Amino acid sequence: MGIRLPSDWELLQFSSEFTRGRCAFADRYQFRLELSWSIVKGEPDYTRMISDYTSKLEQEKKLTGKELIKKAGWHGFFGEMNGELTSRFGRYLGEIGCLVECVVLWTGERDPDLEHDLVSSIRACPPHEGRQQWRAFGMHVFPPATAAFDGCVAQPARTEFNFTNPKSGNKWNFSRYGMVKSWLFADVESWLKSRLQTDARDLRFYHKTMHAVDVVFAEGVFKPEGIHLHKGELQAAAWIAPEDGRLYQVTQRLRKKHPGEQLPVETLLISAPEFTPRITS
Amino acid sequence: MIPPPTPTKRPSWQEMLKSRIYRNLKVTSEWNDKHTQFILKIPTKRPSYLFPPISWVVKPPAYRTLYLDQIGADLWDWCDGRNDVERVIELFAQKHNLTFHESRVSVTTYLKDLLKRGALAVAI
Q: Are the beta carbons of A178 and B97 separated by less than 8 Å?
């Protein structure tokens, strides 16, 4: 799923269940938008869904000044809930079989233009040419369509995405680190070596200049945990993007050959430094 | 009958960001010889049980020492009572090329620690 947001809204909360999920975005001072979704079997009756929901809220005296809205294929309402002006919309995205709810919180007055831009930008992003597309936390990630999202770490100046195909056991790890000058006192190759050495052997490193950036590549074999498991191939790449000074790293661990999963490691991750809005005085 | 305590309203994000951080005036600060650590000496309060003759034997340290790295030293510099928390976060974000919330989490975690140890005080 994709959405286009103002550049100073940051993702602060997320959940990572497979059949349902939620993420919340905030500007400097408060949460501004919440997006939640769940996989459902078919399109609901929106009119009934909205009227049931709003009448329940009105009965509980949680909603006042209700105004029903239909916008860019979304059904919803605007009103005051718990002292805050809010717009809520729902829509079924058939391509991915998800019922999506979008909640916008207003500071001061409602902005109908922003509201329209936000809801009309929400779209399904199904895999394209055998690849998924994930664009968040400053990374543009393209794991194979067969890989399942395994987990995410989101800390200040450290983000990590992990994907696994449970059938093949192949794994992909993407990470991005900030404040590099404060903690990286060696070169990128030494850092990548120390990171991979825990389970990899016969590592071979080489450098390539790509888009005027020195990228360190590593190839080797790795031994998965468990004595019955065979060795697999490992490929990794790491570089520091000059635009934002952050360290980007991608690792591909292939245990079994699986169609569509042996991808060139340099095509798996693109740094997206525009995700770090520059604060200037 | 004792009246129930009046619930205190939790300050909003904006109110917290607009609060100012002051240094404890009794804290002394200096760099070490190699200029790698910034040393804060925070005076300790004499415990109430320390009276003669116990105080003749037990000698508590007169101050507690905190060793800060360059990042901590920058924060100490910026927490001069003139900058509010939001400005400190912005300065940190500018220096380390972070987003506002990345910087907020890092700065507030560090400041909480310094507040807990009595090096700083906050005025909301």
A: yes
